[in-house]
């Protein structure tokens, strides 16, 4: 057979780089060669490493910095609380007004997440993310000027609306550049920044404690405005650093772009059509029970994350150590650092072993032990140690779950819906989690810790079930029991089957 005569050719269109200049298109790739015989066209290991290094240098530091700003702008209210914020805004410390201010952000956050995920690919991703960052940066900065509780609530609602698209957007953005073998560690660097944000927030709050009273401002206003200004400045730089797509990345050569296509397309389930936003793929996600199982489990994990991150200064302050405000801020820093280090190590070994479920289960189980330490109230040392143990599992469980749902949905439409739904339902926990630390439970929050332990047990059960299900499906595929799905289909049709393809194996 004459392949040159009969094989359809995938020609790259004319592209513009981030500055509007012409970018040489990727050399033509034969659909038959790439999609049917991808294993015959190899990118050697050294070439792959060089390409990944280029991507990592250009993309990873910037998205990590963006998320650092994002998370600090969202949770610095917990640090600000210790510097007379409630008194200045006329809030009743014996009511749940502070909890309402924390939780109200997630109302708009949840409403705008999934729509943002679905429209991202139709826009220039880097510029879209930069626009969101600029808007939430302005809101975060001017939150320092509010004078009452109503103004604080209004700012938190706007902050949630503009921040909503960042996290799911970056998760999808990374999947445009990295394949399933390489994406988890990059997502770990991105998501793990939230732990560093907590630590850096503690450093900033500790340092700004010295500014309490400067220019007639109490420390809480300085904490908020000094966190907000770098966000606005970063947003201006983002479009000049982050590429909108592999095809328009001016720092990649023609050969780099070609190799990037090959690395993605040689994986079973990765096809040209599969990377488009198709209605039928979205509807498959709507009907898939696994999407909702992931989402409910992440509701548990993110509920723990948001309550722990915002209220850690309050938790430590209530342990009975008699520390002043600056010491409390400083004591949060090592807790976050431990969480970050553990998460990066866990994500690395999760990538090496291509196992996600067991790491999610282990993370939730370890955090459960930490809450048991806290609820036991067996002395200052054990209770403070409990904070570290919670952090050990917290980011491992929630971060690896984000990459798990993505790698098991190779078609873009379903992946966009699934990851958006996981994050949306997961973030609904942000509305209720603050009330686990309501004023009437202070200072020990025993009931809140107990409720968290119960939810963690639910999350563990769900992840165990998903792990066993994927293991069972892989065994069926490897034994040939799913081969009937390929009967009567051409190679192109088989390649378009996504995770239903008998040759496609789930990440367990």
TrEMBL record:
Tell me the Gene3D superfamilies matching this sequence.
MFS general substrate transporter like domains
- The main location is membrane
- InterPro entries referenced in this protein's UniProt entry, alphabetically: MFS, MFS_dom, MFS_trans_sf
Q: Where in the cell does this protein reside?
A: Membrane
**Molecular function as annotated in GO:** transmembrane transporter activity
Which Gene Ontology terms of cellular component type are present?
membrane
Please list the residue ranges annotated as the Major facilitator superfamily (MFS) profile domain: 59-477
Q: Which domain of life is it from?
A: Eukaryota
Looking at the record, which segments are called Disordered? 1-31
Q: Which Pfam families match?
A: MFS_1
**Annotated keywords:** Membrane, Transmembrane, Transmembrane helix, Transport
Q: Transmembrane segments in this chain: where? A: 97-116, 128-151, 157-176, 188-208, 220-242, 291-316, 328-350, 357-376, 382-405, 417-437, 449-470
Give the way it sits in the membrane: Multi-pass membrane protein
The record, for PANTHER family, names:
MAJOR FACILITATOR SUPERFAMILY (MFS) PROFILE DOMAIN-CONTAINING PROTEIN-RELATED (PTHR43791:SF91), PERMEASE-RELATED (PTHR43791)
Designated name of the protein: Major facilitator superfamily (MFS) profile domain-containing protein
């Amino acid at each position: 057979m004459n392949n040159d005569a009969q094989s359809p050719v995938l020609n790259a269109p004319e592209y513009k780089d981030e500055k509007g200049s012409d970018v040489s298109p990727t050399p033509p790739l034969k659909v038959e060669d790439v999609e049917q015989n991808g294993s015959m066209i190899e990118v050697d290991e050294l070439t792959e490493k060089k390409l990944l290094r280029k991507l990592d240098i250009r993309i990873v530091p910037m998205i990590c910095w963006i998320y650092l700003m994002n998370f600090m702008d969202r949770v610095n209210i917990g640090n600000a609380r210790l510097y007379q914020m409630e008194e200045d805004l006329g809030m009743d410390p014996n009511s749940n007004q502070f909890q309402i201010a924390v939780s109200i952000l997630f109302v708009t956050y949840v409403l705008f997440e999934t729509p943002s995920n679905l429209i991202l690919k139709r826009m220039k991703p880097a510029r879209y993310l930069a626009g969101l960052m600029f808007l939430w940066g302005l809101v975060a900065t001017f939150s320092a000027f509010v004078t009452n509780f109503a103004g604080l609530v209004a700012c938190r609602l706007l902050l949630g609306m503009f921040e909503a698209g960042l996290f799911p957007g970056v998760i999808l953005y990374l999947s445009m550049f990295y394949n399933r073998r390489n994406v988890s560690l990059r997502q770990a660097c991105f998501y793990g920044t939230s732990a560093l944000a907590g630590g850096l927030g503690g450093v900033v709050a500790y340092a700004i404690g010295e500014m309490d009273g400067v220019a007639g401002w109490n420390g809480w206003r300085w904490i908020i405005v000094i966190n907000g200004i770098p966000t606005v400045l970063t947003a201006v730089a983002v479009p000049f650093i982050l590429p909108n797509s592999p095809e328009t990345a001016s720092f990649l050569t023609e050969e780099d772009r070609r190799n990037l296509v090959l690395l993605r397309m040689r994986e079973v389930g990765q096809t040209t059509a599969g990377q488009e936003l198709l209605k039928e793929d979205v509807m498959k996600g709507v009907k898939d029970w696994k999407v909702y199982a992931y989402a409910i489990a992440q509701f548990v994990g993110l509920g723990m994350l948001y309550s722990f991150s915002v209220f850690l200064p309050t938790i430590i302050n209530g342990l009975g150590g008699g520390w002043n405000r600056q010491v409390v801020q400083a004591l949060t820093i090592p807790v976050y650092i431990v969480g970050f280090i553990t998460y990066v190590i866990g994500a690395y070994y999760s990538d090496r072993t291509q196992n996600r479920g067991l790491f999610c289960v282990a993370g939730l189980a370890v955090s459960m032990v930490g809450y048991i330490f806290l609820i036991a109230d067996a002395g200052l040392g054990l209770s403070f140690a409990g904070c570290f143990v919670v952090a050990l599992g917290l980011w491992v469980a929630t971060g690896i779950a984000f990459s798990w749902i993505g790698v098991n949905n190779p078609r873009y439409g379903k992946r966009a819906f699934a990851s958006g739904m996981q994050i949306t339902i997961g973030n609904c926990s942000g509305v209720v989690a603050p009330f686990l630390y309501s004023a009437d439970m202070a200072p020990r929050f025993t009931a809140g810790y107990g409720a968290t332990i119960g939810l963690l047990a639910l999350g563990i059960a769900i992840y165990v079930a998903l792990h066993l299900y994927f293991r069972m499906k892989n065994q069926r595929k490897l034994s040939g029991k799913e081969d009937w799905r390929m009967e009567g289909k051409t190679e192109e049709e088989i390649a378009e089957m996504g995770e239903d393809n008998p040759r496609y194996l789930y990440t367990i």
